[in-house]
Amino acid sequence: MMTPAGTLLAATDLRKAFGTTKALDGAEFSIHPGEVVAVMGPSGSGKSTLLHCLAGIVPPDSGSITYAGRELTSLNDAERSALRRTEFGFVFQFGQLVPELTCVENVALPLRLTGVKRKEAERTALHWMEQLQVEELVAKRPGEISGGQGQRVAVARALVTAPRVIFADEPTGALDSLNGELVMQLLTEAARSANAAVVLVTHETRVAAYSDREIVVRDGKSRDMERIV
Amino acid sequence: MPQSPEGIRPAIYTLSVYTQCRVADMSIGHTLLGLLEAGPRHGYDLKRTFDEKFGHDRPLAYGQVYSTMSRLLKNGLVEVDGVESGGGPERKRYAITDAGITDVGAWLSQPEKPEPYLHSTLYTKVVLALLTGRRADELLDTQRAEHLRLMRILTQRKRKGDIADQLVCDHALFHLEADLRWLELTAARLDQLAREVRR
Ligand SMILES: Nc1ncnc2c1ncn2[C@@H]1O[C@H](COP(=O)(O)OP(=O)(O)OP(=O)(O)O)[C@@H](O)[C@H]1O
Ligand SMILES: [Mg+2]
User: Fold this and answer.
1) Residue A176 falls inside a structural domain
2) B chain contacts of residue A229, beta-carbon cutoff 8 Å
3) How far is the CA of A189 from the centre of ligand 1 (A)?
4) Quick one: pLDDT at residue B112?
5) Are residues A126 and A120 in contact, defined by beta-carbon separation less than 8 angstroms?
6) pLDDT at res. B120
7) Which range marks the domain in which residue A27 is found?
8) Which CATH number goes with the domain that contains A13?
9) Residue ranges per domain, chain B?
10) Which residue's CA is the closest to the ligand 1 atom numbered 24?
11) What is the distance between the alpha carbons of residues B72 and B99, in angstroms, rounded to a whole number?
């Protein structure tokens, strides 16, 4: 399959149905290293499904997804989950931190899962918590911190493995304006300085304004607004 | 905010417009008066402080300071507190009067009239799109893309700017977002209405 030069992650003609619901109906996507792409569109249009397919969480019924030249749909489950652990980072709207672990243990978790020793994993975790300005929360558990703080801890966790793609599904959805801005600023700055790509699902235009360009998903089809306008 | 009979085009949300709107012409008097409430100042000092705090891209002209001060003098809101040797109007030191303090207080406690930022043309377009069987959602996407173009510039400027820049940009960003949300809701409602009418 042909992908534009320099593309890190690309999908063509993605289709995914849940029963009779066509969640994706020929969607396209592409992103370059260091690029932030906003995915917009009405509720139920297929944004999260697109993100899940791109991240190898949900297999599409048909279509092609290439990541760094590899066809994602032809990998087996073990290969796909290895890819997710080492190359991808995730931020969701809520409920992503493990309540039994402290914040620093939460942030270090993706590294621990790839076999990094505790001390080293927590040292890297602390670095990212400092970047996200939540280093004072290291010893607290998720139940003892605010929603905005928790979201910044989650962003630190998404960045801790130095992923090449960060998937963020409504990362500011549960936050007030000030915390939303802070999360977006820190997320995009950290991603740009690490040359990571960000797939940012959001319905808020102010949040999308942190992106380099946007695509719009409607009825499972995507529109690349850069090519249209 | 300037207004035309047709309403306001999104293009009007340009950086220069917003910077110029930081202190609208009519409130320069109140702003200078407010600065004087903090303590007496010479004309040149007033201008410098105003420019520093509010003038960024459009400094006050000296002439504007003098004409404003003579109006405030005439209305008894300020008084001359001393004149530095060397003469010239910029050498006058002004102090606020009790009436001036009352005036500043009244201005600050008065809410600003909410501006109709939105544009009847957008509404007209949505209605026309639906009436002619075109897709209002595509019109919305295109408009959003246009808004986003400016919103990205404002967001970047906010990142680099000082706190005053951030506040000005945030104001513009929230208004631009409000325009789009209104448009989206309008399109959804009209779509619904159009369906019901057709049934
Ligand atoms: N696991 C599932 N089982 C059944 N239907 C699903 C499932 N996931 C998504 N869908 C359906 O697929 C469509 C697209 O859903 P998706 O979650 O991708 O939308 P979205 O654009 O993310 O919406 P929102 O903005 O509300 O999050 C919807 O109609 C939804 O009901
Ligand atoms: Mg969703």
Assistant:
1) no
2) 142, 145-146, 149
3) 30
4) 64
5) no
6) 54
7) 1-85+193-229
8) 3.40.50.300
9) 1-110, 112-199
10) A43
11) 10
Average pLDDT, integer, range A182-186: 90
Q: A166-175 pLDDT, tens per residue? A: 999 999 988 8
List CB-based neighbours of ion ligand 2 within 5 Å: A 48
How many CB atoms within 10 Å of residue B159? 14
Question: Where a domain ends, among A162, A177, A205?
Answer: A162
Number of domains in chain A: 2
pLDDT at B165 exceeding the cut of 50: yes
Residues of chain B contacting A204 with CB distance shorter than 8 Å: 177
pLDDT of A30 higher than 70: yes
Interface of B to A at Cβ within 8 Å reads 137, 141-142, 144-149, 151-152, 154-155, 159, 173-174, 176-177, 180-181
Fold category of B1-110 in CATH: Arc Repressor Mutant, subunit A (1.10.10)
Has residue A7 been placed in a domain? yes
Q: Is residue A185, in this structure, part of any structural domain at all? A: no
- Counted across chains A and B, CB pairs separated by less than 8 A come out at 48
A80, A35: one domain: yes
Domain-located, residue A155: yes
User: Which atom in ligand 1 lies closest to the alpha carbon of residue A58?
Assistant: 1
Predicted TM-score (pTM) of the model is 0.77
For chain B, the distance separating the N- and C-terminal CA atoms, rounded to the nearest angstrom, is 42
Q: Which residue has the higher pLDDT, B79 or B159?
A: B79
**CA-wise closest residue to A203 among A191, A217, A213, A192:** A217
Query: Domain boundary at A162, A182, A217, which?
Result: A162
Do A226 and A215 lie in one domain? The reply is yes
Binning pLDDT at 50, 70 and 90, where does residue A98 land? very high
Given A209, A218, A223, which is nearest B155 (Cβ)?
A209
CB neighbourhood size of A2 (10 A): 8
Q: A207 CA to middle of ligand 1, Å?
A: 21
Pocket test for ligand 1, best of A14, A15, A18 (most atoms within 8 A of CB): A18
Q: Are residues A134 and A197 in the same domain?
A: no
Q: CA dist B62 to A80, B22, B34, B48, B107, Å?
A: 69, 19, 18, 10, 24
Nearest residue on chain A to B174, alpha-carbon basis: A206
ipTM score for this prediction: 0.87
Query: Is residue B139 very low, low, confident or very high in pLDDT (cuts 50, 70, 90)?
Result: confident
Q: Using CB atoms within 10 A of its CB, is residue A74 exposed (0-12), middle (13-18) or buried (19+)? A: exposed
The CA distance from B12 to B4, in Å, is 11
Which residue among A185, A208, A223 sits closest to B148, beta carbon to beta carbon? A208
Mean pLDDT value of segment B76-86 = 85
The partner residues of A16 in beta bridges, in order of sequence, read A24
